[in-house]
Cadherin domain-containing protein (SAR86 cluster bacterium), 526 residues
Amino acid sequence: MSNFKNVFNIMAVLILASCGGGGGGGSDSAGGGYGTTPSNSAPTINNSTSSYSVAENQTTAFTVSAADSDGNTLSYSLTGNDSSSFTVSSSGVVSFNTAPDFEGPSDANSDNIYSISVSVSDGTASASSSFTITVTNDTSDDNVDTFVAWDGVLLKNDTYKPYDKHATSYNLIIGGLPDVTDGFVTNVANIANRMLAQNDVTNSVNRNLLLNNFSQYNAFQRVGSTNMSSYDPALNNENYDGWDNINDNYSVVDFIWEVTSNSPADEQTKAGQINAILEHLLHTITLIFDKSYTSWGYENTSSDLVLAMNQAIEGNFYDPTGNYGNLSESDPILYKRIIAQEFAYWMILTGWDLKALYAPDASPEWTILSASEMETNLPLAHTLFTDTVNGVLVNPTQAYLDSLTFGSLPTSSAVAISVSVAANNAGSGNVYVIDDTQKKSLTLEVGKTYTFTHPSAHPLRFSTTSDGTHASGSGYGTSGGSEYTTGVTTSTSGSTVIEVTSDTPTTLYYYCSIHSGMGGSITVSS
């Protein structure tokens, strides 16, 4: 600007000089001048607070108090993590697009605290401020369950083919294959109804998040008959239209199998059937836990679930290593998910005090029998159960479970168990194999007679103790163990029969009377 002024002054002198000298009158001031453009001030946001609280079920959040010293027209815009949940009017009123629900928060963190940034502009300059809106609970609607339990009517159509019958309990779909009885699917759905209902300790926010996610992730519990290998033709998309669609587009874990006369002998008990339903329902439900709660991350090494599981493993209360072959090496991520999922099932079953009733002997995989024992030995599991599970799931109760009837369970009191021998996968020597499982833990039912057929070179016998030192030909030998013979009939041709009565000890062990380390444990159930 200074160079421009110098040029202007020189030009003015020259002009005056050319006009000066005799005639024309001069002027003592130059004509014209240069003005300045008025400055523009940015608008200001003058709210006295950046944090607002709003009761659920209303849309207005707060009003932006903005001013512009130049009197320009202002416009407003929103950004931030939760801005998509709001609109702002031309006068600065910030409103929810949909009235918020305290029990079903839609903010990014699902904690009922919405974060946004408001910008106000006069067309040239702008100002921004961040705000939080906390949605509070309106207790007048707390006892209203907005989710729907199964109504007791099985729907029979091809909506979820190849599952030709289904029930929906609180957004969890339960589908049965054609050979599954209506009564069994009904039992499964009724148990789900009880587990997913709300009660006086329900955490509505967590429960609503779970049940909404059932719908979002298409949670589906598959129900079949006997087991996978019993199907001929095999269960696949070629033989069962829609098979791949359900497996690919729905959140599925494993099957609940209806026990029949073709099921493994030790599964043909009411307790075993109930436990199978509870286990696999919990597998499916906790799959959605993993998608709903940060405390439940299966693959997060610092999640509450994984920390609780590690405490159980380190304390020798949970040992999943013998159940999944070399999966830990071939697919370590899948292995981590599976053992965390299985731990969650044991923790919940034990927290409900149902473990000792329906799965009393799961050693060495899980050795805790009661909720009080879990509280003492596994405080992290106890806390997780109390803080998360207890507010979302409901104990279906022993009284209800025992009241159920299962029409497909065999009624015969005679049960045949085939025993083979194979090299020990987990050590040296040979072991007994039952239902393709080495040293399988068995459950025998009072009132039934069991016939074990076994190689004659490996006579199967029973004992009440597992701590004896085996001595060839003499049972458990001299260290406290002894052969149990009450109600037992043996032969030299490879057959051992035991009649289980109310006087039979609740815990037995089967072993080879000639070779050590071959057998496993037996739980006697009423």
Residues 1-34, 471-475 have pLDDT under 50 and may be disordered. DSSP finds twelve helices and 25 strands in the chain. Residues 414-525 form a domain with the Immunoglobulin-like fold (CATH 2.60.40.420).
